[in-house]
Every structure is written in C-alpha cells, then in structure tokens.
TrEMBL record:
Keywords: Oxidoreductase, Thiamine pyrophosphate. The branched-chain alpha-keto dehydrogenase complex catalyzes the overall conversion of alpha-keto acids to acyl-CoA and CO(2). It contains multiple copies of three enzymatic components: branched-chain alpha-keto acid decarboxylase (E1), lipoamide acyltransferase (E2) and lipoamide dehydrogenase (E3). It comes from the Bacteria. Residues 14-189 form the Transketolase-like pyrimidine-binding domain. This is 2-oxoisovalerate dehydrogenase subunit beta. It comes from Luteimonas yindakuii. GO terms for molecular function: oxidoreductase activity. SUPFAM superfamilies: Thiamin diphosphate-binding fold (THDP-binding), TK C-terminal domain-like. Its cofactor is thiamine diphosphate. It holds the Pfam family Transketolase_C.
C-alpha cells in the first residue's frame, strides 16, 4: 500500500539534515537504549552536522566518538544491538561503508535466522549517500543495490525532511538492522515543516507524491526532485505523470508500483546509481513478470552511467537530469 506523509503545523521549516538531528534527539530523549556512534559524531557534531548538539545534551556515554575505523564501528554496533541497545552508527560517507560489510552482511543480517529468532539486531547504519556535492573519490557513491540483495536487511532512503524524520524514527524502532541512506545532495536543498512529535512514518511502503494517468515515474532519494520537475514539464505538454517515491527499497512495496503502472501502462525508473544491476533493474524485472500485459511500452530506465562518478566538473553530467527524465517519458508515450 502507498502512504502519504502528514502535514501539520510546526515551529519553523527545517532541512533534511536538521530533521535527522531532530529525530535522533527525540528518540534519545525517550529511549535510554538509543546511542549514537561514529567518526566525529560527538564533540564536532558530525561532518555534515547531523549530530550537532547531541553530545552536549546526552554526554559521551551515548554520543560516542570512535576511532577512524569503520570495521570497528560496525562490530561495536552489532555487539551493542545484541546486548539490548539500539545503536545508530554513522558511516560518514557512502564510500566508507565497504569495510563494514563483513559485520553487516555476515552477522547483523543473519542473527535472526542464525538463532531461529532468539536474537536480533535493532541497529541503524546511517549512510550519507550519493553525488552532487563536488566531493572527491569515495564520497559520492550510490551503492544501495548491493544492500537490497542481502536477506535480513531493511534499506531505507528518505527524500524530504518530513520523511527523513518519520522514517528514521521507524528505523530506530525496528527490531532488525536498517541501512538508512541519506541523500546528501538535498541535505540543505529546501526546508519543510516537520512537527517534532515523535510520530514515525510507515516503513515498507511507497509514497505517491503526485497522481497521474499517462506514465508512472518511479524513483527514490535525491532523484525525487528531478522526477517532480519532470512531471511539471510533462504536465505543461499535456502528459499526466504519476510520481512514486519508493522510500523503502527493501522490502519493496511492489503493489503500489504495479497498481500505478497497471493504470498508466507506462513506466520510467530513475536512479543515480550505475545502470547495470542497479535497483531499477529489479523493479523493471518485476514489472515484466507481473505487469507485462498491462504495459503499453517498454519500461525505460534513466540512471547514472557504468563508471565511477567523475570528479567535479563532470559530476552533474553523470547524474540523471530533469531533461533526461522528460525525454524518457516522451519515448514511452510515443511507443504506445
């Protein structure tokens, strides 16, 4: 089923990164088992300021500065979660997550199955994700697909301040490990009213951000902005585009996507990860299996390229643009 984020009055609009801080502070105030750990998350408040002010409020026993050692961070996080705590670890950058994979994939994701339900890992790994900030190598990767292939993990990616707040609360409260990707290109791109009421948003559902009848645009993370802009441009040309924010990639709410594509008959999937074996390929395969006779045109993918993201001057040419999404939508409209 799809979901729609609620909107109520709040003190002042905040950015996505401020919504992350707000959610962490709420949960730490209301659950003593929640701790935050990572490189520079304490005194300095994190490289992106996601944990700013938490060390002063909760102290060094709950906001823990770790060594510059991602393997140790992951191991500590798994161990804490098995001992009744709810650790929220930060990977600092998406490209720094690889040394953590052994602990995350071989242990955190498997404990519920390994122990036949006797143990589980209520942990969150926060990962600043994606390109668009002119950062050097290892700082701009879109590596979500590798985690969606791992049983036992939830993979979540918000695309707005309100969803960042509500989905992070839900991730911390989930009894199993959650990989929580934060699109850093939109950390401070715009503000939104986000009530600090501790109300979580549902995991495992897609969010229909715009209704449409002609073509379905499916995306997640920072690319939601381009999809919505494309829908506006298409509307000006008489094409009605429905926009779906996947939000939880694993487990995937395929029913919402299928229901939309069954109505529109056309689908464009947008993501900034490389094209080959990106998560969009999984969605396209599911559509081919379950919606083949409802499709009026082949499914299109608008993605990054099968290269490492180029540095600086070419970076924005690597990322899918609004124009590329519009062109793909017009191709599927012309095909059937």
């Amino acid at each position: 089923m799809s979901a729609v984020a609620k909107t109520t009055d709040a003190a002042a609009p905040i950015t996505l990164i401020e919504a992350v801080t707000q959610a962490l502070a709420w949960e730490m105030r209301n659950d003593d088992s929640v701790v935050v750990l990572g490189e520079d998350v304490g005194v300095n408040g994190g490289v992106f300021r996601a944990t700013a002010g938490l060390h002063a409020q909760f102290g060094s026993n709950r906001v823990i500065d770790t060594p510059l050692d991602e393997t140790t961070i992951a191991g500590l996080t798994v161990g804490m979660s098995l001992q009744g705590m709810k650790p929220v670890a930060e990977a600092q950058f998406d490209g720094f997550v690889y040394p953590m994979l052994d602990h995350i994939i071989c242990h955190a994701a498997r404990f519920r199955t390994r122990t036949r339900g006797r143990l589980h890992c209520p942990m969150v790994l926060r990962v600043p994700w994606g390109g668009g900030i002119r950062a050097p190598e290892h700082h701009s990767e879109a590596n979500e697909a590798m985690f969606t292939n791992v049983p036992g993990l939830r993979v979540v990616m918000p695309s707005s301040p309100a969803r960042a707040y509500g989905l992070l609360l839900a991730a911390i409260r989930d009894p199993d490990p959650v990989i929580y990707f934060e699109p850093k290109r939109i950390y401070r791109q715009y503000k939104e009213l986000v009530p600090d009421d501790g109300e979580a948003l549902p995991l495992d559902v897609c969010y229909v951000l715009r209704d449409g009848t002609d073509v379905t645009l499916v995306t997640w993370g920072a690319q939601v902005k381009e999809a919505l802009e494309a829908a506006d441009q298409l509307a000006a040309e008489g094409i009605s585009a429905e926009v779906i924010d996947v939000a939880t990639l694993k487990p995937l709410d395929f029913d919402t996507i299928a229901e939309s594509v069954t109505r529109t008959g056309r689908c464009v999937i947008v993501h900034e990860a490389p094209r080959t074996a990106g998560f969009g390929a999984e969605i396209a395969a599911r559509l081919a299996e379950d919606c083949m006779y409802d499709l009026l045109a082949p499914v299109e993918r608008v993605t990054g390229y099968d290269t490492h993201i180029p540095l600086f001057r070419l970076e924005m040419k690597y990322l899918p643009t609004t124009e590329r999404v519009v062109e793909a939508a017009k191709r599927v409209m012309a095909a059937g």
